[in-house]
TrEMBL record:
GO terms for molecular function: DNA topoisomerase binding; double-stranded DNA binding; histone H3K36 methyltransferase activity; histone H3K4 methyltransferase activity; single-stranded DNA binding; single-stranded DNA endodeoxyribonuclease activity. Pfam families: HTH_48 (PF17906). This is Mos1 transposase HTH domain-containing protein. Residues 6-41 form the Mos1 transposase HTH domain. It comes from Rotaria sordida. GO terms for biological process: DNA double-strand break processing; DNA integration; double-strand break repair via nonhomologous end joining; mitotic DNA integrity checkpoint signaling; replication fork processing. One of its GO terms (cellular component) is nucleus. PANTHER family: HISTONE-LYSINE N-METHYLTRANSFERASE SETMAR, MARINER MOS1 TRANSPOSASE-LIKE PROTEIN. The lineage of its organism: Eukaryota, Metazoa, Spiralia, Gnathifera, Rotifera.
């Protein structure tokens, strides 16, 4: 998506959905990308989010499962 050539986010979202399928990208997501690109952030990585860090939970679960492979989510 090129936010510098006069295209707007909604038009870009429509074009992407026309090419890749109706649910390929939401209009809101396209607007978020355009905002990031205008700010100079051209990274495709997710930004850090507030709330409980998912990565540490995943690492903790891996350790628990390695210690006891029969462990269930109910335990």
């Amino acid at each position: 998506m090129d936010s510098s050539n006069g295209n707007n986010a909604s038009a870009a979202a429509r074009n992407i959905c026309a090419a890749l399928g109706e649910d390929a990208v939401a209009d809101r997501m396209s607007r978020d990308w355009f905002k990031r690109f205008r700010e100079g952030d051209i990274s495709l990585e997710d930004r850090p989010r507030s709330g409980r860090p998912l990565e540490s939970d995943i690492e903790r679960l891996k350790v628990l499962i390695e210690d006891n492979p029969r462990l269930t989510t109910r335990e």
